[in-house]
Please model this.
Amino acid sequence: MNNTAIIEIENLTKTFKNATEPAVNGISFSIERNEIFGLLGPNGAGKTTTISILCGLFAPSSGKVRIDGKDLFDESSAIKKIIGIVPQDIALYPTLNARENLSFYGSMYGLHGKELKDRIESWLNKLGLTDAAKRKVSTYSGGMKRRVNLIAGILHSPKLLFLDEPTVGVDVHSRNVIIEHLKSINAEGTTIIYTSHHMEEAEHFCTRVSIIDQGKILTQGTPAELISNNNGAANLEAVFLNLTKRKLRD
Amino acid sequence: MTKLLATVKKEILLLIRDKVGLSILFIMPMVLIFVMTLVQDSAFKTMNEKGIPVVFVDNDKDSLGILIEQGLKNNDLCSLSDSIDGKKATAELAQKYVGEGKFLVGIIIPKGATDAIRKNVTRLVSETLNTEDTAAKRTNTLPDSVEITILIDPVAKKSFLISVTSNLREFISEVKTKIMFQAFADQIAEVIPDKQNAPKKTYERSQIIKYNEVYASETEDKIVPNAVQHNVPAWTIFAMFFIAIPLSGSILKEKNEGSVFRLHTMPTPYLLLVNGKIIVYVMVCLIQFVLMLSVGQVFLPMLGLPALVLGNSIAGILLLTFATAFAATGYGVMVGTLATTEHQAAIMGSLSILLLSALGGIWVPSYVMPEVMRNISAWSPLNWSLEGFYKLFLRGGQVSDILPEALKLVLFFLATMTVTSIANRKKRNV
Model:
């Protein structure tokens, strides 16, 4: 067992019922502690399926997963305590305000009392939401919702954070704020697993990336390594397009 | 415990921010009780106050016709007319107007009816006493009975007409009996000339058999079954089960808004989240129950309706209310879990509750249903609850009397939770 790896995946396969092809096809990789690991791929590549398995949402068809040295399926409750997730869709209660949403989600991670309150106020302040905290989330702009969505996933200071396209559909200002704070929590010791279609963002944000397509890993390495290993590629987007064959996906 | 409290708090907040949901939960059922009780009570009162429209054709013009006419005129149940559009009512006109629905009932007393009764009595007395009265011998040729025609509006409800016509028959028979007794007394007085031995005419003021109709309730209060006693528990149960719609909707909203996705990744059992919903919606059911009872006890009497009488067992009411609340909440959670969209849950929830309430005797009492339907009705949780409340509110029942109903409701709740759990596991096992 690799002591520095927070996630170790071996031959992970997932075939959904009634599906002819596996969504995830025998992938193996590990993620080191404190990395910002980008899982990149076109639509239907298997990114969300992989993240969903790692979060314990459903079981794989086969393969092994260890998170923080624990078997994902035998010790799922212990693992759930150390992970946080920021889903692609806004997972908030629209009729509750930001404080009420965060208070509920924080409580589900076992936070309570002053500690919970202080953390909520601190994050609302950091992400510029204090003034709007009493308003219902349904009245927020897309960027504000994304920021609350992010806080709900990081409020309990997880060891491992899954980000499924955390900046999709937000303006440049909100994106910068989100990325800056993600970098700061990474600097404090949180490992981040990140999926995105935004190649430029991934190139600058991730310490290592894995490009996945049709359920298989095509390549893996630091953004700089991938660019230099692909002759003629000027950036990560060019590498991505070369590897995924520029074919339109559903 | 903190997690459960947080879930309860979240559910309460979601509920109070949903104004439409709240109105479905509280205002609509109260309006329903008002409307249904007033409609049923006023329909009953209209018949009582205005009376059933009856056209009366008296071709007899003697004691039988006069006594029946007087009796019906004095009866609040009837609104008697002996003329139609200013013309004296005839058999033909009565037939026409009852057929057209202008009168619900028509009564035609044939010509010579009283005379026929008297002659029959004379014949019977003579035959019994073997007198040589030649007039009596002549009556042998008279018909045995007098035929009174009761015309009925073909559109009128059969059950209602059975009740009306049986009352009319009873009253007409009473009048006929009086006339027969009178004739008997007159005949015997003629046969027995000794005035001292002649029978006294006491029959006019006395009845041989008296009926004393008492509701066989064990309660100390005199609970009289009425629209309030029947409607308030029935529609309260209906309202409690109707929470299946907002409850299932809230479960599906959480799924669609992505909250469930996040909640499944948290170190909190999904059952705890469901329990939070159950606690809040059981509380909603209890508030609904208190509101409905207050409508029955305070507001309906303000509109001139009788006040709801609760019976003698507060413990029984509490037990049955909790059991009903859990059954209703469990049903809502199950619908919310089985349905895949809010639209589907709304249709599945509302239709199934309407069906279960119709089968359960909320709309029509189960005792008037055919046997097959009665057997099906016995499987509706709304029927168990309604039977339990009738036991408490109308039969003066105690906790021990409603234990079978309460137990069935609790078992129903456990069954819905089992189905929910299995369905949840199946849905996640993709």
